[in-house]
Write a structure and sequence with these properties.
365 residues; alpha+beta; 13-stranded mixed beta sheet; 22 strands
Length: 365
């Protein structure tokens, strides 16, 4: 995504059509979106004529833009299908983007012999090619190939199959631009219109260029509107790993700095190795990965809607111990007299089991 100019324009407009016909009765709108989910548009309207135009299954198109009266920029589009209606003179409807067609598709029997050796990226892309979803951008590939051990097969909706593919699309990275054993995971979303995007967030890359830097100096955020959430669900600072075949061979490791901050949080694992050095290495990697909690932020911005899912945001705030670079994973946009947006940023940690499974896999997976 392009770097966003940090000057916010004055004028907002948004237009709505229902089944290709102008819908001038909208008085307020809200868009909500999470990675790997449908984008949802809630529209409040007024008037009996509005109610007559709305029906479940109707196609809704929303365009909104920002700028000044001589330079309105129509740079956003939502296309979706109405799924429910609150009927009254002051009513509302809710529409979901075309990802909903994937979730509601007929069940398909995905067979091992049809997919072994295929790139997960292209298997998921083929499943997305449905009911008018535009897959023309899905050309990159992941380099991760389907094996019979992957939990992909059997009767599934298209979205269930896609989600299963993306659950396997994780890469362990060890280079001079990332912390040791960084795990990157592919994500997907329809971010505009009917166009499906697959993207690989890289928030831990030390040379990543953020889409925007949020700070008081840049006049685009105020301290009261940033909330942090500290999650210790996966925190581990004391590890015991025992050989599956010989319990006398084991390794134990602790991180006292983490224990002094968060208390002792132990983890026990049986591992298929008789090599004590291997057990110690796994213990070290687990401690290094999970000795600190994961942190996500919720940020409110005014008149800023050009930040998308998967974009990287840098937060430079005096209230934080150091600047953070995080990925946008969710947002809510209110369209009214102005744009009010709340973003949730920060990818969740993978589970310890997934982490260990990835360490077993080839490093360039």
């Amino acid at each position: 995504m392009p770097v966003i100019p940090q000057v916010f324009p004055e004028t907002l407009y948004f237009t709505v059509t229902v089944d290709g016909v102008g819908f001038p009765y909208a008085i307020q709108g809200q868009l909500n979106h999470k990675i790997n989910k449908s984008r949802v548009f809630n529209c409040s309207f007024i008037g009996k004529e509005a109610l007559e135009m709305c029906s479940v299954g109707a196609i809704v198109e929303v365009n909104w833009g920002r700028g000044n009266l001589t330079n309105l920029i129509d740079d956003k589009k939502f296309i979706g299908v109405i799924k429910n209606i609150q009927p009254s003179e002051k009513g509302s409807f809710t529409a979901f983007d075309y990802t909903t067609f994937l979730a509601e598709s007929q069940y398909i029997n995905y067979k091992i012999e049809d997919y072994i050796g295929q790139d997960l990226y292209f298997a998921a892309a083929d499943a997305c090619d449905y009911k008018g979803i535009d897959t023309s951008r899905l050309t990159q590939g992941s380099g991760i190939f389907i094996t019979e051990e992957m939990n992909l097969f059997g009767w599934k909706t298209r979205k269930e199959f896609i989600d299963a593919c993306f659950n396997e699309m994780k890469i362990v990275v060890n280079d001079d631009r990332h912390p040791t054993n960084t795990i990157k995971q592919w994500q997907y979303a329809i971010r505009t219109g009917k166009i499906m995007d697959f993207f690989l967030p890289d928030e831990d890359n030390i040379i990543t260029h953020p889409s925007i830097t949020l700070s008081i100096d840049n006049n685009n955020i105020i301290d009261e509107k940033i909330l942090s959430h500290i999650d210790t669900t996966h925190l581990i600072n004391a590890v015991t790993i025992v050989s599956k075949t010989d319990e006398t061979i084991f390794a134990q490791l602790e991180d006292m700095g983490s224990q002094n901050k968060y208390g002792v949080i132990g983890y026990f694992l049986q591992y298929s190795s008789l090599d004590k050095n291997k057990l110690e290495d796994i213990a070290y990697k687990i401690i290094s990965q999970y000795k600190n909690p994961s942190i996500t932020y919720s940020i409110s911005l005014t008149n800023s809607d050009n930040i998308e899912l998967g974009d990287i945001i840098k937060i430079d705030m005096a209230a934080l111990p150091s600047f953070s670079t995080k990925t946008v994973i969710e947002y809510s946009i209110d369209l009214g007299n102005e744009i009010k947006t709340r973003y949730k940023i920060g990818l969740p940690q993978v589970s310890v089991k997934e982490f260990i499974d990835r360490l077993k896999a080839p490093i360039d997976r």
